[in-house]
Amino acid sequence: MPDGHAQHSPIMEFDMPAQPLAAALRTFSEKAPARMHLVYDSAWLAGKQAPALRGSYNPRDALDRLLQGSGIVVVQAAQGVIELGLADAAQSHAAAHLPADNRSVAVLPQVTVLSAHLPGQTENTGLYTPEAVTVGGKVEQSLREVPRSISTITRTQLDDQGITTLEDALEQLPGVTISPADHFSAATYTARGFTIQKILVDGSIVGGHDGMDSSVNTSLAMYDNVQLLRGPDALFSGQGLPGASINLTRKRPTQGFQAKAALSAGSWSNYLGEMDISSPLNASGSIRGRVVASYNDKEQFWDNAESKRSQFYGVVDVDLAPRSTVTLGASKTRQWGTGGISNPGLPRYTNGDPLPIPRSMGTTLYDHRNTDSESYFASLQHQLENNWKLKLSAVHTESLTDLRISRYQGAVTPGMTTGSTLAMWGGNTENRVNTLDFNLSGDFNWLDRSHSFVVGGDYRKTKNYNDRGPYGTVARIDWATWDPSAPFTLPAWSARQGWNNDITDQKLYGYGKFQLHGPVRLVLGGSYSNYKVDQIHISDVVTGHQRTTGTFTPYTALMVDVAPQWTACFTTARGIQDQSDYYTPAYEPMSEAKSRSYELGLKGELMDGRLNTNITFYDMQRDNVATRLYNDANFDEEGHYCCYVGADAQSSRGVEIDVSGAITPSWQVNAGYTFDDNQSEYGSEDGNRYASFTPRHTLRLWSSYRLSGAASGWRVGGGIKAQSKAFSSGTVRTWNEATQDYTGPAVPYDFFSSGRAVYSLFAQHQIAKDWQLALNVDNLFDKKYFMTTGSTSTGNFYGAPRSFRVTLRGTF
């Protein structure tokens, strides 16, 4: 680095203990101002230690001290890119010509970069684990530094598996159960026995996964990685629902030019094209831009279904000053087609046995679910003195869904082929979410110890507009002769009175990580929130409202570094959930349900941070859960139900294990196992599983290996998705010929959906310098299974049959 540059570099305070060199460089990058990048071969760092660094230094001097005795030196600092090399000149020259995907990157101050990844970004690393996540903390932290149970999928793994939607990504994460979209609801995701309802993007809530809002399951082309935090997160994820929170990380502009393209073709005429271009937009690199476009046209494995998805994403980073960066961006996504976005949920026999219906059974030619969504976002990040950082962000998201969906319902008596009907609904919904967020984060020394702190606040305004209604029963079904492709006269649509929700959520949050003594740290934090819901029916009359003010939700954790690469932690977290749709016998809205979680975990950071492990034991309790006493037909309508009491309690306890990253430089793995034992603690259901459709045991594994020698251009791998059995029990009403509806005698049912293991294979070959060709085979042995367990009346969804996909990727 030229001396003149060093003279203008800021003086920084350091208090870093002796540690592995890879960890020291990451810590150095987190503390430094933005836009200085370091390029090196990560294999050089294996087994090397960095000395302690304490005191005031400019970045170059600090870097030199960290490299002392390692045999690694700065070999080039042209155009702002600092390249490291081995002390031997010949080895250093060879290192300067390494391919980009064999390099690692750390972020240092004030310099541009050639082709490296940014903090929190995983592309070009070749790893199945991230260097940092924002979920659970608002700021970039390593997985080891977040005392929560977290699973991730990086961009490399998304590409290797050919994962293109959020639903496909979550299916790969351990402990997540997916119930596909059915009738009016979007797909439902469940973790620890509770529904996942909060979706965050870059740490800010952009909407909830509620009802008909299916916009969240659009293309992942614009995102770098997917993060799942299990348990309540009331600090940053709205009310802190007990299941989990999902965070999607947007792709960011790179410091140097980069272009990527992908074309794929697969089973059921599944065609996909993607283009991703990033580049500096001026000579100095202070303005950088990125555009991503994708288009997917495919038929489905069930009849009468075809879907199309398109997405366009653009983002610009502008360095207003060496310490200030503004980010502006927008995205537009469309999803349209026939036959809905998931295969139909099927009935069973009244005894629970599956009907002899092929996996290709679809619904009518009249079905569709079309969604348009747009998002606009802006942020300002400013680096203050003494390693403090201020960030402001704003997001506007809106989506519009129009649909007409039919649904099979009605159990069939064994030996018969009749008893089911096809009902159809139609309508539309519009969701608008405006989010503002600010936070201040940094490190400080007090009583000769190092501490960190994050404080901030957010404001979220959500408006949901809903208008829906039934077409009624459109067909009586004889499964022996039923043909969903046969045309019929569509009955008139009978619109029900719709309703609008106006939700305001305000919050102040903060937490500190305090070093008590040596390796012992205490995390203390909490959030103070106001929450308001107004429900307005089509008549523009406010028919219900709930206001929760002055709610404080605490958060605590104790972290102990039990070894240089291992941290033990004990965490308590709490959350609340709005229940204003449910009313008491006095016609008052229900107060919120409350949840709390205790977690005991051990986290490891191995292979110089390229391999992360986690084992977490948890115990969760949810109280004041709305339990229905009886119906009130004169009061009940969509979004407005009576009569409930807060009598139910639910508990969930289990263990979660994750291993992700590099076992060896050539071997990547992302594996996870979960055990969940959930049960109700109320009345006749006391001791029974309240989420019996979720399995007790789940295993998810995906791995890839780069061959060596003459076969070094090949990568091979595969995976397994396995889980134990699930069950369903209850009663279902039978068809009443006299009234032509399901008001006949109630028939009990109790059945199991057997456990399963579904295997996949992957092979990729470097066919030219810039081109790779890959083959994926999913459901290798063509396992026939149900994704989730419904009732005997409906909700039993087949998993996809065996499929093939060929993908051509280019990087320039």
Automatic annotation (TrEMBL):
Keywords: Cell outer membrane, Ion transport, Iron, Iron transport, Membrane, Receptor, Signal, TonB box, Transmembrane, Transmembrane beta strand, Transport. The keyword Cell membrane does not apply. It is found in: Cell outer membrane. Its main location: membrane. Gene3D superfamilies: 3.55.50.30, TonB-dependent receptor, beta-barrel domain (2.40.170.20), TonB-dependent receptor, plug domain (2.170.130.10). It is a multi-pass membrane protein. InterPro entries: Beta-barrel_TonB, Beta-barrel_TonB_sf, Plug_dom, Plug_dom_sf, Secretin/TonB_short_N, TonB-dep_rcpt-like, TonB_rcpt_CS, TonB_sidphr_rcpt. A motif (TonB C-terminal box) lies at residues 795-812. It holds the Pfam family Plug. One of its GO terms (molecular function) is signaling receptor activity. Residues 36-87 form the Secretin/TonB short N-terminal domain. GO terms for biological process: siderophore transport. One of its GO terms (cellular component) is cell outer membrane. Belongs to the TonB-dependent receptor family. NCBIfam families: TonB-siderophor. PANTHER family: FERRICHROME IRON RECEPTOR-RELATED, HYDROXAMATE SIDEROPHORE RECEPTOR FHUE. This is Outer-membrane receptor for ferric coprogen and ferric-rhodotorulic acid. The lineage of its organism: Bacteria, Pseudomonadati, Pseudomonadota, Betaproteobacteria, Burkholderiales.
